[in-house]
Amino acid sequence: MRFWSLLGLGLLAASPAQAALDYAGLLTLAADGPIIASYQDFQSQTDALKQSVESFCAAPDAGGLEAARTAFHATTDSWQQVQWIGYGPVEAFHRGQRVQFWPDKKNAGDRQMLALLKDRKADAVDPNRVVFASVAIQGLPALEMLLFGDGQADKVLAGGDETALRCRLISGIAHNLNRIGGELVHEWAKPDGFTALLKNAGTGANPYADHRQAASQMFNALHGQLSAITEVKLAHPLGAAAAEARPGRSENWRSKRSARNIDINLESMRAVFAASFAPILAANGKSAAADRFLAALTEAQATLRKLPAPMEVAMTDPEGWKQLAGVKAKIKAAALILETDIANALDLQVGFNALDGD
Question: Which of 172, 224, 243, 307 could be joined to 125 by an S-S link, Cβ 3.0–4.6 Å?
Answer without folding.
Answer: 172
